[in-house]
Design brief:
The complex is a heterodimer of chains A (about 280) and B (about 260). Chain A is mostly helical and about 280 residues long. Chain A folds into two domains: about 5-50; about 65-280, MetI-like fold, CATH 1.10.3720.10. In chain A, about 75% of the residues lie in helices and about 0% in strands. Chain A is built from ten helices and two strands, in the order αββααααααααα. Chain A has helices spanning about 5-40, 60-95, 100-110, 115-130, 140-165, 170-180, 185-210, 215-220, 240-245, 250-280; strands at about 50, 60. Chain A is globular and about 75 Å long. Chain B is of the alpha/beta class and about 260 residues long. Helices cover about 35% and strands about 25% of the residues of chain B. Chain B is built from eleven helices and eleven strands. In chain B, α5 packs across α7 (about 160-170) and α7 runs parallel beside α8. Chain B starts with a strand and ends in a 5-residue tail after the last helix. The chains are: A mainly alpha (about 280), B alpha/beta (about 260).
Chain lengths: ~280, ~260
């Protein structure tokens, strides 16, 4: 056997292993989910009961789906002005300058901070601050989580936005300037329209990040298993209910958590797919 | 240097006096250039690459100020007004500019591209006024018949030559005094090039055209006056006919006969 053939066999088998691992994971998850799916059916998705009392066990995913979507969406709204301004600062106003490189580095640094560190900061710094401002529930809740999520997803929206904005061809901007446009007019009529689908894709990907974010949210959302009664109320997300309860869960409860995990996987998969599709379409 | 062959123009629309432009300090791209431009003519700026042609052109609508650390000295009078004493935005509205590569706005339709100057400057027009400006500008660049049924399609679907004519229409729509073109045919094929050249000779009836070109044959074909620059200096300025048949400066002659460039 020549070495070329050996290399090929090794590469093939390792690549195949990846399929096996991924496939096995999905297989065992689906297997674990079956008891809950059999017991609750599709109703699981919109039922808002979470009752672990033995004998009358009843579980539904609505509080967590709602918590996840609400916190992520609010985080996206909060992150929008910040990341758009930063993208324009880095990609247009101060393109290729030292200050842009430094701030760009900081943005990348934000992306590298582990979730648990954000959680600690949120718990010990942000939360006391919010309590001083008069927040109820000891500063825990949907809004607090959204705030920390917003900071966490800024780098994802910003770096793609910055990249797309700096790719807007110079001669388009010059054409606008040559007609007497101010910088603001160039941004609003040339740069943003040209870069809009890329910026949009950045927000979709950032939203995808927010959906699956676990640790920091778990530490701040208050972990009450109900649909949040207000913007500032406590709640729970799909990721954080799993993180909180998997340890002491078994039987039907464990199976329900696994279903929630599958649903989360499905939602983030779809959201990321949409984002990547937009990027691909832009070429 | 009094021996330079630089002709005088009677009642010029544009008068450049002792214009110098430096990138960074003392790195002059344009050195002490004085030239007058006659109304309703095509004036070509020629010279080897890096000689300051484009910088000179951009100094005429202050586009060179988009770069940082630019220093400009001298006076540029457009219709008697010193453009360096007017607001930049007004100067740029008084002039139209066309670039090397066709650059219609990719997010806008053909129609919107033509009236982009009005949109960018926040000027609101009635639908009928817009229609009229669009038709007139597109007729001016001989593009109307080709695009009148697809006005609301994106301008980027047109061929390169059509795109460049669309860009000229966009520059005309605002009714500029002077049109500045920076090697407008360097990205076009020969057929599209000759269409643009024909167009420019026609447009000079109503506009004054200044054209940067590295293509001597093009300057000879379409320009009335020619200006030869070398290393940022104005070497010679004359009627194109005279310059091509009887250049006064040795450097001009060498350039025109292909000894360098």
């Amino acid at each position: 056997m020549n070495s070329d053939k050996i290399t090929r066999i090794v590469l093939y088998s390792f690549s195949f292993l990846i399929i096996l691992v991924a496939g096995g994971m999905v297989f065992s998850l689906v297997g674990g989910a079956i008891p809950a799916i059999k017991t609750f059916g599709l109703q699981f998705i919109w039922s808002n009961v979470w009752d672990p009392t033995e004998g009358s066990e009843n579980y539904g995913a609505l509080p967590f789906i709602a918590g996840t979507l609400i916190t992520s969406f609010v985080a996206l709204i909060l992150c929008l002005p910040l990341s758009l301004a930063t993208s324009l600062f880095l990609g247009e106003y101060f393109r290729n300058t030292r200050i842009a490189r430094i701030i760009g580095l900081m943005v990348d640094l934000l992306a590298g901070i582990p979730s648990i560190v954000y959680g600690l900061w949120g718990f010990y710094v942000l939360r006391p601050f919010l309590i001083d401002m008069g927040f109820e529930n000891q500063g825990f809740g949907v809004f607090t989580s959204s705030l920390i999520l917003a900071i966490m997803i800024i780098p994802y929206a910003t770096s793609l936005g910055n990249e797309i904005i700096s790719m807007v061809p110079n001669d388009l901007k010059e054409a606008a300037y040559s007609m007497g446009a101010t910088r603001m007019e160039v941004i609003s009529t040339v740069i943003l329209p040209t870069a809009r689908s890329g910026i949009f894709a950045g927000y979709i990907l950032a939203f995808g990040r927010a959906l699956g974010e676990t640790m920091a949210v778990t530490m701040l959302i208050g972990n009450s298993n109900r649909v949040p009664d207000s913007f500032f109320g406590t709640g729970n997300t799909m990721a954080s209910v799993i993180a909180n309860q998997f340890g002491e869960a078994d039987g039907l409860k464990l199976s329900s958590l696994i279903v929630i995990g599958l649903l989360l996987f499905l939602i983030t998969g779809i959201v990321n797919g949409i984002g990547k599709l937009i990027i691909k379409k832009m070429g | 240097m009094s021996e330079k062959n630089i002709i005088k123009i009677k009642d010029p629309i544009l008068s450049i006096q002792n214009l110098s432009v430096a990138y960074d300090k003392n790195n002059y791209a344009v050195k002490d250039v004085s030239v007058e431009v006659k109304k309703n003519t095509v004036t070509a700026i020629m010279g080897p690459s890096g000689c300051g042609k484009s910088t000179l052109l951009r100094a005429l609508n202050r586009m060179h100020e988009l770069y940082e650390n630019i220093e400009t000295k001298g006076t540029v009078l457009l219709n008697g007004q010193d453009i360096y004493k007017l607001p930049t935005i007004r100067v740029r509205r008084m002039t139209g500019m066309v670039f090397q590569r066709p650059n219609p706005f990719p997010t806008m339709s053909i129609y919107d591209n033509v009236i982009a100057g009005y949109k960018l400057n926040g000027i609101r027009l009635k639908k009928s006024e817009k229609d009229e400006i669009v038709e007139r500008s597109l007729r001016d660049v001989v593009l109307w018949e080709e695009v009148k049924d697809s006005l609301f399609k994106k301008g980027t679907f047109l061929s390169g030559g059509q795109q460049q004519r669309l860009c000229i229409a966009r520059a005309l729509a605002f009714g500029p005094e002077v049109i500045l073109l920076d090697e407008p045919t360097s990205a076009l094929d020969p057929v599209a090039t000759s269409k643009v050249e024909d167009l420019l000779t026609k447009l000079k009836e109503n506009y004054t055209i200044i054209l940067v070109t590295h293509n001597m044959a093009q300057a000879a074909r379409i320009s009335d006056y020619s200006l030869f620059m070398y290393l940022g200096e104005l070497v010679e300025y004359d009627k194109t006919k005279n310059m091509f048949t009887n250049p006064q400066d040795k450097r001009t002659e060498e350039y025109l006969t292909g000894k360098f460039g």
